[in-house]
Specification:
heterodimer, A: alpha+beta, Jelly Rolls, Immunoglobulin-like, 9 helices, 34 strands, B: Serine Threonine Protein Phosphatase 5, Tetratricopeptide repeat, five-stranded antiparallel sheet, globular
Chain lengths: 611, 255
């Protein structure tokens, strides 16, 4: 509780506001999912490829799609590949990543099936793709596969052997021992001495444990003459594949299956002679092949990302002269023969003085014989962060050369760029400029500094008595205001009260005047003022008119108010002295007047207490 | 009338100002504190601890001393005492960011985790608002509202026109006074509950005050508990989660 700070209150309120606005923001991060199949009508036993394409700005938050397997189909495998496109428009960069998931289903029964929907989770929501309708029909009248070669109708052993010797399918691997990732070419060749018709693929191997690239796939049989063991065969190249083993171990290649019809022209004759329609259906399979895949040797250099083959690398930057803050297109090309598809981005130069954005990759392959070669291009957008003559340091790629059996590293050449200072402050690509400061470690905060004074803080404010006493101040304030108001009201309505209230200050004023006269030596004036001040004071206190009030009347009034006799005598004495001074001036000394003044002051004080 | 006010009010204000004002420590204690800082800077945490502890032992309750003492204990790998010192510093300087940060940092290192309950938004807001005001801030608020109420009442008496203005202000200030006073009372009550920090590596909580009673939980160094009862050498402590048990008094120290 105490650990919570004031700031949290504000953060929370801002959070609520932001949450309200977020709902609109979220729409911008849409994920699109599309589903398709390679064909909608297949025969029983055929493979259907169901492709789910997921497009999103950020793949990290998107799960792999789940596809239900319909009853009557069998999921034989799935692969995925990702591509990315970056576009910068008016300095704003958008990234789009597309991942294609390919699910292979084998149709097992006839019927109409619905593939999908593929489901994937994105930020707690489930996204569904479309569904695709697929029709599975019966195989067109050919027999189910039997030990190769086999026919639809019963045949004798010798007959089978004869066919085997004259019709066979060979799978020819380049080599049988390879490294992980090393290219191995496999050629499928059909050898026949018969006349064949309706040659069609039956089962096509899926090459588990390999990444397979088709180099050649025959669209029609292109027969060539070839002599094997002294016998002339017609041979046709069916397939050429480049296989890249993905895991170490012994991998058996599945058999390729070809269905065809042998025209029985020479051998089988009917009663009526040659029957051009008498054919024999045969399924031919390639032999078993096992390929041993060796793991890559230890001691891979830093930055090795699984590239196997022979590669070269070059880099170029366009344009050669830019303003600071403007983007430079940097193209890094990896060229050679090997598993180009598996080549990860070459290591970007560290501390280059450039800000790099994730590259756009492009793969171009060429097929030569059973080998695949080509080039993979990484196109970067780089923004120089300093002006002047800037060197873009080399990119490096580590790869394994299976021919020499060791690791190698290639580098691009350094590129010199001329960066002119920007006219304006460099226009940053939104939110992507600079690096956020990262906390490297954490420790307690440092001690408080030395002090000159240290206050004892043991008592909190509310624990101090003074604090509570302070609360009485307003109470007194209210009481004061009430008293003052009552006083004002009485002053307005009650003459006697008003005169009483003023009496003291009036007497003070007159005595002050008398004092001035005393100092000036005006004896008559002084005694007159003293007399008036005392008489006026008594009149004010008793609410009587002062004019014409004699000393005797005053004495009577004072007696009526029960004033002490001694005080009355004093009053009479003052009046007497004043009268005397008025009628016999010049005989009064300054000391006497001083004494009279003091006596009058005392009397006014005494009278104030009793009337 | 005036004399009455003079006789009562002036001494009152004088006492109040004296009472509210801080009492400063002697120069010798300040020098001792500064020497502790010197030791800390030199990395001699044992000496720093001994200096700060002597300042505390001589009766000075100052948040900065406790904070620096907590740091020295933390650097000396005495987590329980570090947390204890930080908690004491926090009591004296509520809301001090350094103290809060280091207390949080130290609490992460301890073994026992207090599982924070999932609370709804309203409770969280109320808790944040509640935590936002320190006891002193609430006391000042209460005082300010009392003065405002007094001022409005005095103005109303003095100037009996404008009833609506004075009445409205009065309602606002009385409301503010009641609210802040209630919060102050509640917080002061919470503050008054004695709390303690476990200082031993492992303290066993039992169902009664004695080592024969059934073991109900185990606590580790640095864990904060509320003390409910004391009996002999045993304390009935309650955890944040509501779990209660008797722990030997020497296993912990009051904040």
């Amino acid at each position: 509780m105490t650990a919570m700070r004031g700031r949290e209150v504000w953060i929370f309120l801002c959070g609520v506001l932001f949450a309200l606005l977020w709902t609109q923001e979220a729409d911008a991060q849409d994920v699109t999912v599309q589903a398709s199949v390679d064909r909608t009508r297949v025969e029983v036993g055929d493979l259907i490829q169901f492709t789910v394409e997921v497009e999103a700005a950020q793949m990290g938050s998107v799960s792999a799609p789940q596809v239900p397997t319909p009853d009557g189909m069998q999921l034989t495998g799935s692969t995925s590949s990702t591509s990315m496109s970056v576009s910068i428009v008016n300095g704003a960069m958008t990234t789009k990543r597309t991942t294609a998931y390919v699910f292979s289903f084998r149709a097992q029964r006839t019927g109409t099936y619905v593939l999908g929907p593929a489901q994937l989770a994105h930020e707690g929501k489930t996204i569904r793709s479309d569904q695709v309708r697929v029709e599975v029909v019966k195989r067109s009248g050919r027999p189910q596969t039997r030990p190769a070669p086999s026919t639809g109708r019963s045949m004798g052993r010798s007959e089978i052997r004869e066919i085997e010797q004259n019709l066979f399918l060979q799978a020819i691997p380049e080599k049988r021992v390879v490294y992980v990732g090393e290219q191995v070419g496999v050629t499928y060749k059909l050898f026949t001495r018969y006349d064949l018709r309706n040659v069609q693929y039956g089962h096509v191997p899926t090459f588990t444990g390999f990444w397979a690239e088709t180099v050649f796939d025959a669209q029609r049989l292109n027969m060539q003459r070839e002599v094997v063991d002294g016998r002339a065969f017609n041979t046709a190249l069916l397939k050429r594949l480049a296989l890249f083993p993905t895991t170490a171990g012994k991998h058996a290649l599945e058999q390729l299956e070809v269905n065809c019809e042998i025209v029985a022209g020479r051998r089988s004759r009917s009663l009526f002679g040659f029957d051009p329609f008498d054919t024999q259906q045969v399924t031919v399979r390639s032999g078993d092949i096992e390929i041993e895949v060796k793991p890559l040797p230890a001691g891979a250099p830093k930055g090795f990302g699984g590239a196997v083959g022979q590669f070269e690398m070059r880099a170029e930057a366009i344009p050669g002269t830019v303003k600071a803050g403007d983007p430079v297109a940097v193209k890094v090309v990896v060229q050679g023969a090997g598993n180009l598809h598996a080549i990860a981005e070459p290591a970007r130069p560290e501390r280059s003085g450039f800000k790099f954005y994730d590259p756009k990759t492009n793969l171009e392959t060429r097929k030569q014989g059973t080998r695949i070669s080509g080039q993979k291009t990484f196109e970067y957008v780089a923004i120089p962060q300093k002006a002047g003559q800037v060197i873009l340091p080399p990119f490096t790629l580590a790869y394994f050369d299976p021919g020499q059996g060791r690791y190698k590293t290639v580098q691009t050449k350094s590129i010199a760029l001329h960066v002119t200072p920007g006219e304006l402050a460099p226009q940053p690509v939104d939110g992507l400029r600079g690096e956020e400061v990262r906390a490297l470690g954490s420790d307690i905060r440092y001690i408080k500094p030395d002090r000159i004074h240290l206050a004892d803080q043991s008592l909190l404010l509310y624990q101090r008595s003074g604090f509570w006493l302070l609360q009485l101040v307003p109470v007194f304030g209210v009481a004061g205001a009430y008293a003052y108001r009552r006083h004002r009201v009485r002053l307005e309505g009650d003459v006697a009260y008003a005169r009483r209230r003023r009496s003291r200050s009036e007497a003070q004023r007159r005595l002050g005047k008398a004092k001035g006269l005393l100092e000036a030596g005006d004896s008559a004036g002084f005694h007159g003022e003293v007399h008036r001040s005392l008489a006026q004071f008594v009149a004010d206190r008793t609410n009587l008119p002062a004019a014409g009030l004699t000393a005797d009347q005053i004495g009577a009034v004072l007696v009526d108010h029960g004033v002490d006799a001694q005080v009355i005598a004093g009053v009479q004495d003052v009046f007497g002295q004043c009268d005397q001074a008025r009628f016999a001036p010049g005989q009064i000394s300054a000391e006497q007047m001083q004494a009279l003044f003091a006596q009058t002051e005392d009397l006014i004080g005494a009278l104030e207490r009793c009337i | 009338m005036r004399t009455v006010i003079e006789r009562l009010l002036y001494p009152l204000v004088a006492v109040a100002i004296l009472g509210v004002n801080a009492i400063f420590a002697s120069d010798a204690l300040v020098a001792l504190y500064n020497r502790g800082n010197e030791h800390y800077r030199a990395g001699d945490f044992d000496a720093a601890i001994s200096a700060y502890e002597r300042v505390v032992a001589q009766g000075l309750n100052n948040g900065e001393v406790y904070y620096n003492l907590g740091n020295a204990y933390f650097k000396n790998a005495q987590l329980g005492r570090a947390i204890l010192s930080y908690e004491r510093a926090l009591n004296l300087m509520p809301g001090d960011r350094d103290v809060l940060a280091n207390l949080q940092f130290a609490n992460v290192q301890k073994i026992d985790r207090e599982n924070e309950d999932e609370v709804n938004i309203l409770t969280r807001v109320l808790q944040s608002v509640f935590a936002f005001f320190t006891l002193d801030a609430l006391a000042v608020m209460v005082c300010a509202f009392v003065f405002c109420v007094g001022g409005v009442v005095a103005c109303w008496i003095y100037l009996p026109v404008r009833r609506l203005l004075w009445g409205g202000l009065l309602v606002v200030f009385v409301g503010g006074f009641l609210g802040s006073a209630a919060m102050l009372a509640f917080k002061a009550h919470q503050h008054s509950i004695p709390k303690a920090i476990i200082l031993v590596d492992e303290a066993i909580g039992r169902s009664g005050p004695g080592s024969d009673f059934l073991q109900v939980f185990t606590l580790h160094e640095g864990t904060k508990v509320e003390i409910e009862r004391v009996e002999g050498g045993w304390l009935l402590v309650r955890l944040h989660s509501g779990l209660g048990g008797w722990v030997e008094a020497r296993a912990l120290e009051r904040i």
